[in-house]
Amino acid sequence: MIKLLLILAALLVVAIIIVLLARRLQSREIIERDSENQQWYQQRLQELQDDKAQQRINDEDYQYAKAELDKTFVNDSRDIEANITWQSSRPWLAIILLLVMSVGLYAAFGSWSLQRQADEARQRLPELGKTVLQEQQAVDTATLNTFALGLRQKLQQQGNDPIAWWIYAGLMSDLNQFEQANEAFERSLKLDPDRVGTLVSYARFLLQSGGQENRQRAGGLLARALRIEPDNVEAVSLSGFVAFESGDYEQAIEAWQYLLALTPGSSQRRSAVEQAIADAQARLEAEQQQLTVTVDISPELRQALPANSTLFVYVTAAQGAPMPAAVKRLPALDFPLTVTLTNTDSMLPDLRLSSLDNWKVQARVSQDDKIELQSGDLKAQPVVIKAEESASVNLQLSQQHP
To answer: Which fold has domain 142-286?
Structure first.
């Protein structure tokens, strides 16, 4: 590439020099012809002056001849300028010349070089495929790129091979070319929609890419694979992962228990599956956590409540941000009021009852529907308890003083 740029720079310099030389040659030509005309005029004028001095012509003839000589000199000078066509210096001619040469050089050398590399990769495809399959993780990026280039040449000629598209998709994924990998997986499935290996590989690729949409798409692919091959170990394992990431811990446990039954007792994978089941079970138990809160108020304060008052019962972390991990809102009517808080009452997916070690339980009556504390609101003294599978708390509302 550097050599090509140097060649183009040299060509640009040459083109500019040619334009400047042409301009200079035009200037020299008109100067030389004008000088010759001047010499001829001076010579002829001297001859007329000599004839007059030696009285070979009288004064009247001299004046007439000199006038004709002047007239001829002027006409000749005009003819010189008229016969020479001035070509103004046009730098853009050099630029156009450079562009034309650039395209020519690229067509001659750039595309030719790329095509040669592609042809060589296509010829080495069997050798490269054997190397990639045998060495796997030890294969360097350059080898993977060459193998991918050769395989792409094959697919351009024979695009109806679902296995080749599947292999190409895996290569593109390894090379972080995710859009091309996704397209290759789609091409492979279009040619063979029920190939379990492709369904499972595509699902794994989507899960690695992340995102809820990709997770849902992966779940559909795995469901199709399990309908075709119910005992496919990878499909069962990934389906449990999809359920776990979606918060469906019961389904995750069910999938991984089935996977455990498919895993030989001597397999090192059993311990990983057992740990996954334990994690899902812990999450499920945490999901079942609930807190029962009973809120009461004195008869005097109850009578003073506005008709549109709102009761907020919520739980925050004992230490840290005041954002509620669970909250319920209801009209402040009949007291005492009892509410039950669970993970389903969370405002944020990453901040729930099950994510806290200690609960700070609070209650407040607002004169409108805003949870922020305002003058005249009623508030209960907060109670901090250890997070448990099931717990209950009693709170008493009182008047807040500025």
So the answer is: 1.25.40
